[in-house]
Amino acid sequence: MTSIQNNLALQIVKENFGEMAHGICSYLIKKKSYPLVMLAADLNLEKKLVAQLLSILIIHNIVDYKLNSRQIVEYKFNTKSAINFIKTAR
């Protein structure tokens, strides 16, 4: 995705889910795909809070998850779904 699309998607996340969700998604864009424990540690946030925000974003298809080769769940920001969120939020 282009930086303009990523910025638009991040603005949509910020307006609909708050500053903390924006920070998490912004970090996921930089890291491409990242596990929960490392994400919480890097952002200096409680693991439970990050897990709750990721769950909400997963429900809205803004964040995807998958198992990596070491059987660790990794999370990834979905720019297209975030942009499409404004179409379905009306």
Q: What does this entry look like structurally?
A:
The chain has 90 residues and is α+β, with helices and mostly antiparallel strands. It is 66% helix and 13% strand. It has five helices and three strands. The protein has a three-stranded antiparallel β-sheet. Strand 2 and strand 3 form a beta hairpin. Helix 1 (3-17) runs antiparallel to helix 2 and helix 1 (3-17) crosses helix 5. The radius of gyration is 12 Å and the shape is globular. The two termini are 24 Å apart. 20% of the residues are buried. The model has no long low-confidence stretch (mean pLDDT 92).
Strand content: 5-15%
Give a count of the beta strands, DSSP E runs of length 2 or more: 3
Strand order in space, largest sheet: 1-3-2
By DSSP (H or I, 4+ residues per run), the number of helices equals: 5
Q: Kindly state the percentage of residues in helix.
A: 55-70%
Structural class: alpha+beta
Q: Give Rg in angstroms.
A: 12 Å
The average pLDDT is 92
Structure described in brief:
By secondary structure, this protein is of the alpha+beta class. It contains 5 helices and 3 strands; from the N terminus they run ααβααββα.
Primary descriptors:
66% helix; 5 helices; 3-stranded antiparallel sheet; 3 strands
